[in-house]
Amino acid sequence: MKPPLLGVDYYPEHWPADRWATDARMMHAAGLSVVRIGEFAWAKMEPTEGRYDWRWLDEALEALAAEGLQVVLGTPTSTPPAWLIQKHPDILPVDAQGRRRNFGSRRHYCSNNATYHEYTRRIVTALAHRYGNHPAVIGWQLDNEFGCHDTARCYCENCAAAFRVWLKDKYSSLDALNAAWGAVFWSQSYTDWAQISPPNLTVTEANSSHVLDWYRFSSDSVVAYAQIQISILRQLAPDRFITTNFMGPFPDLDYYQLSAPLDFIAWNSYPTGYAEVTGPTLYMPDEPRPKLAYDVGDPYVTGFCHDLMRGLKDGLPYWVMEQQAGSINWANTNPGIRPGTVRLWTWHDLAAGADTVVYFRWRACLYAQEQYHSGLLRHDAAPDLGYREVLRMKDEQPLMRSIQGARVQVDVAILADYDDLWALDLQPHNHVIAYWRHLFAYHRALVRAGVPTDVVSKQADLSRYKLVIAPSLLLADDVWAARLTAYVKAGGTLVLGVRSGFKTPSNLVTDQPLPGPFRELVGATVEAWHSLPPGVTYPLTDHKHQMLTAAIWAEGLSTQSAQPLMFYTGGPLEGQAAVTVKVVGQGRAVYAGVWPDEAVLNSLISWLLPQAGVQPLALLPEGVLVSRRGSFVFLFNFTDAPATAWLNVTSAVDAFTGQSIERAAAIAARDVRVLSLGADSR
Ligand code: GAL
Ligand code: ZN
């Protein structure tokens, strides 16, 4: 599956046909080898119902193939055409306010609409018949950004009916459902399945178990909708790959389930957009931001996305299907990009585990919603910065190819789970507490400490990790406790964060002392939990007698078979433990009962790493990142000043210059160094 390496997202339908050959020639000249097309072109493929027009697409494919370019074909289902919506307006989704959303942008469909399923089957079948064995077509992208623009959850009558079917299937009886939801509360007990609705437009907050099931059902609906397309493509284009484009820490779909039937995952990386829009949801509101170059985005945010996306399929190499290649149009300030930045992002993608990087988009568009979005070419077709960057990387492609296929090497994992995310974010209790924010805090602390970190499903095989951190294992039962206990007994180091084991899988609070099913494993009991308002902190001390503080959330622990690692030295929890450790079998289980700020994290991590036998790859200044893939180590400087990293690897050679590397490796501003460790260190 390796060959394509750099590519571009192309919309031939936006340009006159006599331009396509020139575009293809320029793509080839820049060293691009793969082109994604078609994902929004339904109205061009089927201008009126049942009348297909393949001529333009045949010709576009010809033009690309003539230059040796390979093609990923998108199924156009995120844009049902006007004639279809006019004929079947009930395809349009309904928002949480009960309003039907309009035609006129994209993603305007309900995943549970049977009519839409039928039209989906028809267009996907027609496309697969026509192009499934086309020599230039190497694979498929399903739809585009499932769930984007708040479309993962539709509140129409169809969805309400499908929800009832889903619930019947899950619970069999209303007694079971009423018990699982605690429906006795506020007289919510149901006596007829028809009484159950989606949990929108309730007078005040809806029942948290009801909402959690609604989120699960909605996610399942999208996964089932994707499967309709997958089944057709598997049958009609059996030896072509199938992927779709994911969106980093997008919270509305269970990405583990959506990725399961795909050959590999792809995601869309817009570093400046993510820094501006997602960054504020990941950092604490008042947290000082790293000093970075203004046009590189935030590599801690981009890196978190990469690690989360790589974990969707357990570390398998993936694609970046849309890589920002200039300025974008949808964030707050959309900074202009300087030379070097696109190359930096490209290498960051490769270092993180991507095998192919596809730039968005070929040429800036003259009309409609994305007029201010750059492409590799400008509006006037002159090469823009992105094109020049791609040209510049031509010489670097042989090195890039020698990295493809290898696994990223990581000793530490953070566990993620969408049920936990949904349940926590539904009732955060303290408004700055948020699921991804909690994971990001641990992730960033490790990355800054020079320790590359995976983010993986809690179902993943944990035995390959020396250290596993589960910041928020909120919904738990004895099965999870047994799995994690086995990991620890076999020698692993496990950290459970605040509120772990608080709830059952159906989102009821456990009737056991906290942390519920994990109490035996951690050997400590949560006696009290306090949410702390702004400005209130409880003093803490750690194993080195450093003075620290707990802010946001503090749990007071009594120890049964654990040792305190941090304890409160004042405030209402004085004398109780805040963080504990228990040796279990060959490993150890840590319970971290405080929301971790930077100082607490640094203390905890500096204690954990040697305990778990994890060696940082390098000592890094802020804004400098390190990772290891196969036999290469990558150093990135995302700041505007030269920087030095202190390496913990011996006998490395600079893969660009062939010079051997000193322990102190200098990295120019906004630059990357690729270090080859030699075959024996693989
Ligand atoms: C992506 C989307 C693309 C395009 C791009 C603009 O989220 O998949 O179609 O809209 O954003 O940055
Ligand atoms: Zn619907």
Explain what you see:
The chain has 682 residues and is of the alpha/beta class. The chain folds into three domains: 323 residues, TIM Barrel; 201 residues, Class I glutamine amidotransferase (GATase) domain (Rossmann fold); 59 residues, Immunoglobulin-like (Sandwich), CATH 2.60.40. The chain has a nine-stranded parallel sheet with strand order 5-4-3-2-1-9-8-7-6. Helix 18 links the parallel strand 12 and strand 13. It starts with 5 loop residues before the first strand and ends in a 6-residue tail after the last strand.
Topology:
Layout: E1 6-9, H1 20-29, E2 34-37, H2 42-45, H3 55-66, E3 70-74, H4 82-87, H5 114-131, E4 137-141, H6 157-171, H7 174-181, H8 208-236, E5 241-243, E6 245-246, H9 255-259, E7 266-269, H10 271-277, H11 279-282, H12 299-312, E8 318-324, H13 341-352, E9 354-360, H14 385-392, H15 397-403, E10 412-416, H16 418-426, H17 435-448, E11 453-457, E12 467-470, H18 478-489, E13 493-496, H19 519-522, E14 524-531, E15 538-541, E16 547-550, E17 553-559, E18 563-568, E19 577-584, E20 587-592, H20 598-612, E21 618-619, E22 624-629, E23 632-637, E24 643-647, E25 653-654, E26 664-667, E27 671-676
Parallel strand pairs: 1-2, 1-9, 2-3, 3-4, 4-5, 6-7, 7-8, 8-9, 10-11, 10-12, 12-13, 13-20
Antiparallel strand pairs: 14-17, 15-16, 15-18, 18-19, 19-20, 21-24, 22-23, 23-27, 24-26, 25-27
The structure holds beta-D-galactopyranose (GAL) and zinc ion.
Residues 93, 110, 112, 154, 156, 158-159 line the site of zinc ion (ZN).
